[in-house]
Amino acid sequence: MFGLDPQNLAARVKASGQAVRLPSVTESVLRGMVGFTLVSLGGFGPWVLAGRWFYRNVGELGLYVVCAVVFVGLSGLLMHRLIIGPGSLSRFYKVFSVAFVAYAVAWTVGWMSFRGVTGSVVGALAGMAVMGGVLAVGFAARDAVWKIIIVLFVANAAGYFIGEWAYKGVLSLKEGNASGIVLEQSTRAALSKLAWGLIYGLGSGAGIGWAFYVCQTKARQLIRAGTPNPSV
């Protein structure tokens, strides 16, 4: 469906006739962190800039839909190099759009069903299960699906909950708090949301970068075996 199975990835690299860059796991994780952090800051933008308007006019669910559209729209531009070889942009959009929309739906259902910490955990677990499943199937890496889901869940949950802690911490920076830092209410509101988006992006991006690396393990083996001078 996506042309991301090991044989297709290796065949495109061979057909290109060019040396291909095979990123290390560290490079993939860093690319995921940087790329998804920028995506996340953009995705949190509607909430930061016009959260009240969205809640009044289209409701909480409407806001989530708009944020998800921004996440997907920016993701390919900033993260498609996680896929090895030529044609990565269109293929990234195809597989990640399905994976992220499935995650967004599962997370929203989990959150809106339970709310609070329970809703957040249920949403993260359900969301990362479907995202990991889509990536594993899309890359024909079904043997690694549970490993992918676990790492995605841990990374996503860490980014979400640490981000939430930062969000609440920035909101508390008002007159009379122990830190001695005073911020206007509107400034605190914007910075607190951006802090959440930043940390969520770093955590989730690390998991996504790692997942893309693991999903392409067999493709890297085929490329190394069939390409005279792969750039490793």
Topology:
Layout: H1 6-16, H2 25-43, H3 45-57, H4 59-79, H5 88-114, H6 116-138, H7 145-171, H8 185-215, H9 217-226
Label this structure with key terms:
mainly alpha; 9 helices
Provide structural commentary.
This protein is mostly helical. It has nine helices and no strands. The longest helix is centred in the C-terminal third of the chain and has 31 residues, at 185-215. The two termini are 28 Å apart. 41% of the residues are buried. The mean pLDDT is 90.
| Share in β-strands | under 5%
Order of helices and strands: HHHHHHHHH
Rg over CA atoms? 19 Å
Q: What is the terminal-to-terminal distance? A: 28 Å
The backbone outline, from C-alpha atoms, is elongated
Please count the beta strands (DSSP E, at least 2 residues each).
0
Summarize the structure.
The chain is mainly alpha-helical. It contains 9 helices and no strands. It is 78% helix and 0% strand.
